[in-house]
Amino acid sequence: NSGVVCLLRPLLLDVVPSIRQTTALALGRLADYDVDLAEAVVKAGILPQLICALPEENRYYKKTAAFVLRAVAKHSPQLAQAIVQCGALEMLVICLEDFDPGVKEGASWAFGYIARHNPELSQAVVDAGAVPLLVLCIQEPEIALKRIAASTLSDISKHSPELAQTVVDAGAIAHLAQMILNPDAKLKRQVLSALSQIAKHSVDLAELVVEAEIFPVVLTCLKDSDEFVKKNGATLIREIAKHTPELSQFIVNSGGVAAVIDCIGSCRGTVRLPGIMTLGYVAAHSENLSMAVIVSKGIPPLCVCLIEEHEDHIKAAAAWALGQIGRHTAEHARHVAVANVLPTLLDIYVDTRSSEDLKMKASIFKALKNILQKCTYLPALEPLLHEAPPNIMKHIIGQFSKVLPHDSKARRLFVTTGGLKKVQEIKAEPGSLLQEYINTINNCYPEEIVR
Prior knowledge:
Helices cover 71% and strands 0% of the residues. It is built from 31 helices and no strands. The longest helix is centred in the first third of the chain and has 17 residues. This is SPAG6 protein.
């Protein structure tokens, strides 16, 4: 408000190096504070002056200039675009080639803040020739530089298969894979994130990540004391599992499913989410893979997540995963039903609080439907007859109408437990599917019993 930005601008061209550097630092801290101040710095025409003599400046000034560019770029795609337009990327590339690790670190950080916004800005970073130099940076001995360079490669890779392919072509995967066992937790977080962002786009990219022999090494990350390492490790496994049955089978063979189940059991909250999704993706591919999740005792921890977690999206993910496990055959559905999952899902579905989130309600309904359409284990279905709303009742009655005509023992039990009585109380539209199911059940018994 006092016009300081305009007063600082001429000082960027001062003859004394320390004045130029301190001025840049002041501008960087102003720009870092909020988006309005960053815009004021850009509008004052600071950026061209900041970078005009950058190659000749000393390392302290280069570091500070990179900080200013990062501080401006972080706020919005428009401000990051302003940095691209003033020719700063070419100068940042020169900084990436600098001898001083601190200068490289500052430049990597600035590139990361520019690339993270959108595919166009990320492409501009690639076109400037930053990727091969970033891959060299992750091979440097300094941990801080490795972290920032890995983070920037992650930000570049996340937008599209083409951008991820650029990072792969520069030879990044092999170097990232070697760092999974690095003792530094913050570095591991970034390395796992970068590999996830590469693997998520396509089968080919996921296979390239797997071929770098990340299994079974990556499974150690699921036992890490750092929550973000756990989460990012599980995310990487999820991004590989989702693509094909073959990749999921490879994860199962490597002991990945058992490790993910242990991980879900040992943590809470959003850290669980990628592990829950992994089990769902593996189970979705085929009957055998779903059975592998069941045999590894994957159902109880998913049921625990339904009960323990307060966040709707985590409950919804757990419900979705259970639905994927139970939807294949009667045997799969029976395993889910025996674990007492159905009453838990029904309680969440009819709970007035969860009904406010329509997306959550839809995923719970879909999971119930997936399991119920295959479940022929009547002892698990019968208690639901007394609580289920009409849209779920239809699927339960449907299963009874399939089983009762062929099972005399089940027919007797259905009378003695009050199931048949409950069916008579259901009001169904004449000619509806539900009415057909009820008629089929009633036809299994003599008329006087039905009366």
